[in-house]
Amino acid sequence: METGLVFNLQKYSVHDGPGIRTTVFLKGCPLSCAWCHNPESQSAQPELTFSERRCFGCGECRPACSLGAAGPTQGPLPPQVEGCTTCGQCVDACPTKARQIVGRRWSVAEVLAEVVKDGIFYDESAGGVTFSGGEPLTQPAFLKELLVACRSRGLRTAVDTCGFAGTQVLLEVARLTDLVLFDLKLMDDAKHRQYTGVSNVPILANLLALSQLHDHLWLRVPLIPGINDDEANLAAVARFAASLPGVRQVSVLPYHKFGVDKSRRLGLESSLAGLEPPSPAQVQRVVEQFRAGGLNAKAGA
Ligand code: SF4
Ligand code: SF4
User: Fold this and answer.
1) What pLDDT does 70 receive?
2) Considering the entire predicted model, what is its pTM?
3) What is the number of the ligand 1 atom nearest to the C-alpha of 101?
4) Domain final position from 84, 102, 120
């Protein structure tokens, strides 16, 4: 049985596909989007996070860490300890959960045992299970086994992908799921490289191939002020989306600032720390623009 690195399992989710869902977040992503709202998802390894707000300075964490002796002998450990092995000793010692390890290995059976508990909610709402991330296609064997296991239990599934993966892997996964949520961020390749770290050429080619195979695709367009909300990008997104068979819905997802605080907890600085979300009116204007292009667009997931 496959195992995989999971960093969150979110119940009663209503933002990752139809109905009430459980969203399983797999850790590891080939992109590093500047606006990422789950920066803890990017590394394919477990990570230590530290919440300054929760720490009241008791210093219980320091003696718990075999590396703590390298610094002062009293007081809290620094948020990030050089050479940290993510052993979790300081996490266990911390009375306020200010220190936490993000990401642990789950077996397919463990995930399935958790997601089937909410079967009644899926049935009543036409919901199901969504595999998101990070990028779930970075763990293809685990993901495929999860999808087969869900299907064998009669659970509807969705896969939420950035599309940066081998085409064969993507299409194999698509054959095993009822719905694909596919992110479409920037149509200009140079800008895509600048803000996500990778080219959009394989992503767009994958979306084209996917749309010829699968007839239940939802596109997700994050709206990031000053980065992808210009007329040229929005018009190009609308044109491309409208040319694809299989696209049932386009969701316009306004930028929010949750990722800024999460980055801080990982000891990282967000390059968009000062950026404000778009107003509801701006989001609605984009929705209307997409609708005018013949798309079934909506604000939010
Ligand atoms: S996770 Fe382990 S190695 Fe890392 S800081 Fe905590 S106790 Fe030290
Ligand atoms: S044990 Fe927790 S609350 Fe106490 S100093 Fe360490 S991180 Fe802060």
Assistant:
1) 57
2) 0.92
3) 1
4) 102
